[in-house]
Amino acid sequence: MSTAAIVGGSIAAAGIGAVGSNMAAGKQAGAAKNAQQLEYEQQQQALDFQKQEWQTQQGNMAPWIKAGQGAIGTLSGLENQGLQGQGPLAAWNQQFQAPTLEQAQNEPGYQFALQQGQGALTNSAAASGNLLTGNTGEALQHFGQQLGEENYQNVYNRAMQQYQQHYNEFQQGQSNLFNRYASIAGLGQTATGQLGSEGSTAAGNFANISLTGGAQQAQQINNAGAAQASGYAGATNAITGGLNNLGQYAMLNQMGYI
Length: 258
Hints:
Helix content is 87%, strand content 0%. The protein is mainly α and 258 residues long. The longest helix is centred in the C-terminal third of the chain and has 121 residues, at 134-254.
Protein backbone atom coordinates (compact mmCIF):
# COMPACT_ATOMS: atom_id res chain seq x y z
CA MET A 1 0.00 0.00 0.00
CA SER A 2 1.34 3.46 -0.89
CA THR A 3 2.23 6.01 1.74
CA ALA A 4 -0.44 8.38 0.48
CA ALA A 5 -3.10 5.72 0.84
CA ILE A 6 -2.06 4.92 4.37
CA VAL A 7 -1.98 8.58 5.32
CA GLY A 8 -5.32 9.21 3.70
CA GLY A 9 -6.87 6.21 5.38
CA SER A 10 -5.69 7.32 8.81
CA ILE A 11 -7.01 10.81 8.29
CA ALA A 12 -10.33 9.49 7.01
CA ALA A 13 -10.68 7.09 9.94
CA ALA A 14 -9.94 9.89 12.40
CA GLY A 15 -12.46 12.16 10.69
CA ILE A 16 -15.14 9.48 10.66
CA GLY A 17 -14.55 8.78 14.34
CA ALA A 18 -14.77 12.47 15.21
CA VAL A 19 -17.92 12.97 13.21
CA GLY A 20 -19.56 9.88 14.69
CA SER A 21 -18.68 10.93 18.21
CA ASN A 22 -20.10 14.41 17.62
CA MET A 23 -23.29 13.02 16.10
CA ALA A 24 -23.88 10.64 19.01
CA ALA A 25 -23.18 13.39 21.51
CA GLY A 26 -25.51 15.73 19.65
CA LYS A 27 -28.35 13.21 19.81
CA GLN A 28 -27.80 12.68 23.53
CA ALA A 29 -27.69 16.42 24.12
CA GLY A 30 -30.85 16.93 22.06
CA ALA A 31 -32.66 14.23 23.99
CA ALA A 32 -31.63 15.85 27.27
CA LYS A 33 -32.83 19.27 26.04
CA ASN A 34 -36.16 17.77 24.95
CA ALA A 35 -36.54 16.16 28.36
CA GLN A 36 -35.74 19.48 30.00
CA GLN A 37 -38.37 21.25 27.91
CA LEU A 38 -40.98 18.60 28.73
CA GLU A 39 -40.23 18.88 32.44
CA TYR A 40 -40.53 22.67 32.19
CA GLU A 41 -43.95 22.40 30.54
CA GLN A 42 -45.14 19.88 33.13
CA GLN A 43 -43.87 22.15 35.89
CA GLN A 44 -45.81 25.10 34.46
CA GLN A 45 -48.96 22.98 34.19
CA ALA A 46 -48.64 21.94 37.82
CA LEU A 47 -48.05 25.55 38.90
CA ASP A 48 -51.01 26.76 36.86
CA PHE A 49 -53.22 24.09 38.44
CA GLN A 50 -52.12 25.10 41.93
CA LYS A 51 -52.75 28.75 41.09
CA GLN A 52 -56.22 27.94 39.76
CA GLU A 53 -57.08 25.91 42.86
CA TRP A 54 -55.87 28.71 45.13
CA GLN A 55 -57.95 31.28 43.25
CA THR A 56 -60.98 28.96 43.47
CA GLN A 57 -60.57 28.62 47.23
CA GLN A 58 -60.25 32.38 47.58
CA GLY A 59 -63.48 32.82 45.63
CA ASN A 60 -65.28 30.19 47.73
CA MET A 61 -64.22 31.78 51.00
CA ALA A 62 -64.74 35.39 49.93
CA PRO A 63 -68.49 35.59 50.78
CA TRP A 64 -67.91 34.19 54.27
CA ILE A 65 -65.02 36.54 54.94
CA LYS A 66 -66.96 39.51 53.57
CA ALA A 67 -69.99 38.65 55.72
CA GLY A 68 -67.78 38.29 58.79
CA GLN A 69 -66.12 41.63 58.16
CA GLY A 70 -69.52 43.27 57.70
CA ALA A 71 -70.80 41.76 60.94
CA ILE A 72 -67.73 43.00 62.81
CA GLY A 73 -68.24 46.49 61.41
CA THR A 74 -71.93 46.53 62.34
CA LEU A 75 -71.26 45.15 65.81
CA SER A 76 -68.49 47.68 66.38
CA GLY A 77 -70.84 50.49 65.36
CA LEU A 78 -73.57 49.27 67.72
CA GLU A 79 -71.06 49.02 70.56
CA ASN A 80 -69.90 52.58 69.97
CA GLN A 81 -73.51 53.77 69.97
CA GLY A 82 -74.12 51.82 73.16
CA LEU A 83 -71.21 53.56 74.88
CA GLN A 84 -72.95 56.85 74.07
CA GLY A 85 -76.22 55.58 75.49
CA GLN A 86 -77.82 55.09 72.08
CA GLY A 87 -78.93 52.19 69.92
CA PRO A 88 -80.03 48.66 70.81
CA LEU A 89 -76.86 47.93 72.81
CA ALA A 90 -77.17 50.92 75.11
CA ALA A 91 -76.95 50.14 78.82
CA TRP A 92 -80.09 49.59 80.94
CA ASN A 93 -81.07 52.97 82.32
CA GLN A 94 -84.45 52.34 83.94
CA GLN A 95 -84.53 52.77 87.71
CA PHE A 96 -86.92 50.80 89.88
CA GLN A 97 -89.72 52.98 91.20
CA ALA A 98 -91.33 51.71 94.37
CA PRO A 99 -95.14 52.03 94.29
CA THR A 100 -96.62 54.86 96.33
CA LEU A 101 -99.17 54.41 99.10
CA GLU A 102 -101.83 55.90 96.85
CA GLN A 103 -101.01 53.36 94.14
CA ALA A 104 -101.30 50.55 96.67
CA GLN A 105 -104.64 51.85 97.93
CA ASN A 106 -105.94 52.05 94.40
CA GLU A 107 -105.02 48.44 93.78
CA PRO A 108 -108.08 46.53 92.52
CA GLY A 109 -109.65 44.58 95.36
CA TYR A 110 -108.01 46.48 98.18
CA GLN A 111 -110.91 48.83 98.89
CA PHE A 112 -113.35 45.95 98.61
CA ALA A 113 -111.36 43.84 101.08
CA LEU A 114 -111.06 46.82 103.43
CA GLN A 115 -114.80 47.51 103.36
CA GLN A 116 -115.67 43.86 103.82
CA GLY A 117 -113.31 43.47 106.75
CA GLN A 118 -114.40 46.63 108.47
CA GLY A 119 -118.04 45.70 107.92
CA ALA A 120 -117.50 42.30 109.45
CA LEU A 121 -115.82 43.83 112.53
CA THR A 122 -118.56 46.44 112.90
CA ASN A 123 -121.32 43.90 112.60
CA SER A 124 -119.63 41.65 115.10
CA ALA A 125 -119.17 44.52 117.56
CA ALA A 126 -122.77 45.64 117.12
CA ALA A 127 -124.05 42.17 117.74
CA SER A 128 -122.12 41.97 120.97
CA GLY A 129 -123.03 45.49 122.06
CA ASN A 130 -119.46 46.78 121.71
CA LEU A 131 -119.88 48.89 118.59
CA LEU A 132 -119.00 52.19 120.23
CA THR A 133 -116.28 50.91 122.54
CA GLY A 134 -112.59 51.64 122.25
CA ASN A 135 -111.84 48.01 121.55
CA THR A 136 -113.86 48.13 118.35
CA GLY A 137 -112.08 51.25 117.18
CA GLU A 138 -108.71 49.71 117.99
CA ALA A 139 -109.64 46.53 116.15
CA LEU A 140 -110.72 48.48 113.08
CA GLN A 141 -107.49 50.48 113.13
CA HIS A 142 -105.36 47.36 113.54
CA PHE A 143 -107.21 45.60 110.74
CA GLY A 144 -106.74 48.55 108.40
CA GLN A 145 -103.02 48.82 109.15
CA GLN A 146 -102.39 45.11 108.73
CA LEU A 147 -104.40 44.92 105.53
CA GLY A 148 -102.64 48.03 104.19
CA GLU A 149 -99.17 46.60 104.95
CA GLU A 150 -99.99 43.26 103.35
CA ASN A 151 -101.50 44.95 100.34
CA TYR A 152 -98.52 47.31 99.90
CA GLN A 153 -96.07 44.41 100.19
CA ASN A 154 -97.96 42.52 97.51
CA VAL A 155 -98.04 45.57 95.24
CA TYR A 156 -94.32 46.18 95.85
CA ASN A 157 -93.41 42.56 95.09
CA ARG A 158 -95.40 42.58 91.85
CA ALA A 159 -93.75 45.84 90.81
CA MET A 160 -90.30 44.40 91.56
CA GLN A 161 -91.09 41.22 89.59
CA GLN A 162 -92.24 43.25 86.63
CA TYR A 163 -89.11 45.39 86.80
CA GLN A 164 -86.90 42.28 86.95
CA GLN A 165 -88.81 40.70 84.08
CA HIS A 166 -88.35 43.79 81.92
CA TYR A 167 -84.64 43.87 82.77
CA ASN A 168 -84.22 40.20 81.88
CA GLU A 169 -86.04 40.70 78.59
CA PHE A 170 -83.81 43.68 77.83
CA GLN A 171 -80.68 41.70 78.58
CA GLN A 172 -81.89 38.72 76.56
CA GLY A 173 -82.69 40.96 73.60
CA GLN A 174 -79.25 42.52 73.67
CA SER A 175 -77.58 39.11 73.99
CA ASN A 176 -79.54 37.73 71.05
CA LEU A 177 -78.63 40.71 68.87
CA PHE A 178 -74.96 40.58 69.87
CA ASN A 179 -74.73 36.80 69.39
CA ARG A 180 -76.23 36.94 65.91
CA TYR A 181 -73.59 39.35 64.68
CA ALA A 182 -70.85 37.62 66.68
CA SER A 183 -71.83 34.29 65.11
CA ILE A 184 -71.49 35.71 61.60
CA ALA A 185 -68.20 37.33 62.55
CA GLY A 186 -67.04 33.95 63.89
CA LEU A 187 -67.87 32.29 60.58
CA GLY A 188 -65.76 34.91 58.83
CA GLN A 189 -62.92 34.31 61.26
CA THR A 190 -63.10 30.55 60.68
CA ALA A 191 -63.12 31.05 56.92
CA THR A 192 -60.10 33.35 57.19
CA GLY A 193 -58.23 30.75 59.23
CA GLN A 194 -59.06 28.00 56.75
CA LEU A 195 -58.01 30.17 53.84
CA GLY A 196 -54.75 30.98 55.61
CA SER A 197 -54.06 27.29 56.12
CA GLU A 198 -54.86 26.54 52.49
CA GLY A 199 -52.63 29.44 51.46
CA SER A 200 -49.74 27.95 53.42
CA THR A 201 -50.34 24.59 51.75
CA ALA A 202 -50.51 26.22 48.32
CA ALA A 203 -47.28 28.13 48.99
CA GLY A 204 -45.60 24.89 50.04
CA ASN A 205 -46.82 23.20 46.87
CA PHE A 206 -45.59 26.09 44.75
CA ALA A 207 -42.17 25.95 46.38
CA ASN A 208 -41.96 22.17 46.09
CA ILE A 209 -42.97 22.15 42.42
CA SER A 210 -40.56 24.98 41.61
CA LEU A 211 -37.63 23.46 43.46
CA THR A 212 -38.21 19.93 42.19
CA GLY A 213 -38.84 21.08 38.62
CA GLY A 214 -35.84 23.39 38.71
CA ALA A 215 -33.58 20.61 39.98
CA GLN A 216 -34.82 18.19 37.30
CA GLN A 217 -34.36 20.76 34.54
CA ALA A 218 -30.90 21.62 35.81
CA GLN A 219 -30.00 17.93 35.74
CA GLN A 220 -31.18 17.63 32.13
CA ILE A 221 -29.22 20.75 31.16
CA ASN A 222 -26.20 19.24 32.89
CA ASN A 223 -26.79 15.98 31.01
CA ALA A 224 -26.94 17.87 27.71
CA GLY A 225 -23.70 19.67 28.51
CA ALA A 226 -22.02 16.45 29.58
CA ALA A 227 -23.16 14.71 26.37
CA GLN A 228 -21.86 17.56 24.24
CA ALA A 229 -18.58 17.60 26.15
CA SER A 230 -18.34 13.84 25.73
CA GLY A 231 -18.78 14.29 21.97
CA TYR A 232 -16.04 16.87 21.85
CA ALA A 233 -13.78 14.60 23.87
CA GLY A 234 -14.57 11.67 21.60
CA ALA A 235 -13.82 13.70 18.50
CA THR A 236 -10.58 14.92 20.01
CA ASN A 237 -9.59 11.37 20.92
CA ALA A 238 -10.37 10.15 17.42
CA ILE A 239 -8.31 12.89 15.82
CA THR A 240 -5.52 12.40 18.35
CA GLY A 241 -5.54 8.66 17.64
CA GLY A 242 -5.30 9.34 13.92
CA LEU A 243 -2.40 11.71 14.41
CA ASN A 244 -0.66 9.19 16.63
CA ASN A 245 -1.04 6.56 13.92
CA LEU A 246 0.42 8.95 11.37
CA GLY A 247 3.31 9.69 13.67
CA GLN A 248 4.02 6.02 14.21
CA TYR A 249 3.81 5.43 10.47
CA ALA A 250 6.25 8.24 9.79
CA MET A 251 8.70 6.87 12.36
CA LEU A 252 8.56 3.37 10.88
CA ASN A 253 9.01 4.80 7.40
CA GLN A 254 12.11 6.68 8.50
CA MET A 255 13.50 3.52 10.05
CA GLY A 256 12.99 1.69 6.76
CA TYR A 257 10.39 -0.76 7.99
CA ILE A 258 7.82 0.57 5.57
